[in-house]
Design brief:
Layout lengths: L16 H12 L12 H9 L3 H11 L30 H6 L9 H8 L3 H9 L4 E6 L1 E2 L3 H13 L1 E4 L2 E4 L6 E9 L4 E6 L9 E2 L7 E9 L2 E3 L4 E3 L2 E2 L15 E3 L7
Parallel strand pairs: 2-7
Antiparallel strand pairs: 1-6, 3-4, 5-8, 8-11, 8-12, 9-10
Length: about 260
């Protein structure tokens, strides 16, 4: 695989151990019978690995290849950097500082960086290094005991006794009419926090406490339409992009007071 020639002053990530070994193997194929590199061999290999000819010559010199016999590599050409080399973290207390910021201000990197007084790019670099993490915050319905009993009774009402056996109602004679809600706020949010931090769970009494846009739709079981001689998908008033009929529906705006927890 060939790469574009590296420009002067251009930075590149360190070569891996396998890339350094492959580089030496390519240079061995470009040696003369007397054991010297051919002219411009370093330039050709540098274009292949996306580095400078100076880097190629340095790795070739480090390998100390024995050209008298089987052309074996006498010294390792792997990376000589230690495990914790590189620039040290400037903000060592970043996880503790993030936990002091209200969760309502931790939904994007820009707001968190503004609260911490640091550049957004720097905060994103810390995220890629695993210093901070992301979590999903989903709004959960707050059901009371009476709500749970009503749901259970409705499910039990759908059980039919036929010849002593229990069956679930096929619901071919039922049409479910309900509102389709599009919330003006995002129900699932990404929260930036420290690794292992327990994110506060957002709850609400009902989804109707959020600002949203609503329209009515009807859903029934798919069935064969004798009039049109085709299968009816059971959707009425739903957008055609989701397989529903192309019938128009009026949008109703429900403006309610959001409930923050």
């Amino acid at each position: 695989q060939s790469f574009q020639k590296m420009r002067k002053g251009q930075h590149k990530k360190n070569l891996t151990d396998s890339e350094c070994t492959n580089m030496v193997q390519h240079l061995l194929t470009k040696c003369t019978p007397s054991g010297k590199l051919r002219m411009r061999a370093a330039d050709t290999v540098a274009e292949m690995f996306g580095c400078t000819p100076t880097t190629v010559r340095r790795i070739w010199k480090r390998a100390s290849v024995d050209l008298s016999g089987n052309k074996t590599i006498c010294h390792s050409v792997g990376q000589r950097k230690k495990g914790k080399s590189g620039r040290k973290l400037l903000y060592t207390d970043l996880p503790q500082r993030i936990q002091t910021i209200p969760q309502s201000r931790r939904y994007c990197f820009r707001s968190v960086a503004h609260a911490l007084g640091m550049p957004t790019s720097t905060l994103h670099t810390y995220y890629k290094r695993g210093v901070i993490a992301k979590y999903s915050s989903v709004v959960k319905p707050l059901l009371t005991d009476s709500n749970k009993v009503c749901r259970l009774n409705w499910a039990l009402d759908q059980v039919r006794d036929i010849d002593g056996e229990k069956f679930i109602d096929a619901m071919y004679d039922a049409v479910h009419v309900d509102e389709k809600w599009f919330f003006m706020t995002r129900l699932q949010r990404k929260v930036i926090g420290a690794p292992g931090e327990k994110i506060k769970q957002r709850t609400c009494k009902s989804k109707q406490h959020l600002l949203k846009v609503m329209f009515l739709s009807a859903v029934a079981r798919p069935r064969w339409d004798d009039t049109k001689q085709e299968w009816f998908n059971g959707k009425i008033g739903t957008t055609k992009n989701h397989g529903g009929d192309s019938g128009s529906s009026d949008l109703l705006h429900a403006s309610t007071t959001p409930r923050h927890t």
